[in-house]
């Protein structure tokens, strides 16, 4: 009996240790099943992806307190020039690949061994000069996707990569084992031209053409593993709800006209990605469906732990939206909620860490990447 008891105890301890391994081992989690699949990440986009290329003095003028508390309060416990209370989707992507957080390109002292983030808050898909020419520069930062491409080219030069023909080894070092993450871009183009004489159709044509042109350049340079995020349903953002009449609502309770615009933008991008897959068969091109992932959370908020769908956690004015465009998050008259994890919207335009984490999980482990992110990992040589 004593021998049998020892066997039972040993079996129980073994089962306990195996269970602990299943729970805590990162190598067994779905997003990290193949750590170090990628050695670096290059990211592009706007404030939803920017990890510090802008700060209060250089970012969009309506949200010019990003370098002040309570930005960063949840995870970093101090402002990091991220437009959120904590981490962004790109931060969770880096974590899932066992890589450090991406440093902003504009930080000359940053260690760029594991990649670089070129995303800029306020950035547009369309070149800045278009907005200047049409007198739409009231709240526009001068950076666009073209700026980010220029920065990327400078980075390539700093790594000794001129082109794949004359400097093949240097370029191979840059592009090999690299994930290219093209974050949400284009929402600012529509916002900056809202109410102007420039038609939404013109903006849509120029924005989608600029983005797809940018993607074609990346793929032509040698990008092999590319994830492209679509626009979220921007009609669900606090700012949109605050500005639009209550008669303009869709089945999610968001601003219908704005959501329709974002959805059509995404459809155009997806069609172009299909053609790129044929043009660049050696590349793996993934579409991250921000629109449907976000709308899934809005429609099933309780399941994901959210209680406030449209009200901003950090802002002023109270009421249904707690938003005042002249007294945004971080301003002297603004305050933040006690539990940001129950809110989708952080400051009226940008999301909480909890929402970014949910989006990242739906992209990396869910069904909102087309084809699935697991397919990209499996194809990684």
From TrEMBL:
<keyword id="KW-0732">Signal</keyword>
<keyword id="KW-0378">Hydrolase</keyword>
<dbReference type="InterPro" id="IPR036514">
    <property type="entry name" value="SGNH_hydro_sf"/>
</dbReference>
<dbReference type="Pfam" id="PF00657">
    <property type="entry name" value="Lipase_GDSL"/>
</dbReference>
<dbReference type="InterPro" id="IPR001087">
    <property type="entry name" value="GDSL"/>
</dbReference>
<dbReference type="GO" id="GO:0016788">
    <property type="term" value="F:hydrolase activity, acting on ester bonds"/>
</dbReference>
<keyword id="KW-0325">Glycoprotein</keyword>
<dbReference type="InterPro" id="IPR035669">
    <property type="entry name" value="SGNH_plant_lipase-like"/>
</dbReference>
<protein>
    <submittedName>
        <fullName>GDSL esterase/lipase At3g48460</fullName>
    </submittedName>
</protein>
<comment type="similarity">
    <text>Belongs to the 'GDSL' lipolytic enzyme family.</text>
</comment>
<feature type="signal peptide">
    <location>
        <begin position="1"/>
        <end position="31"/>
    </location>
</feature>
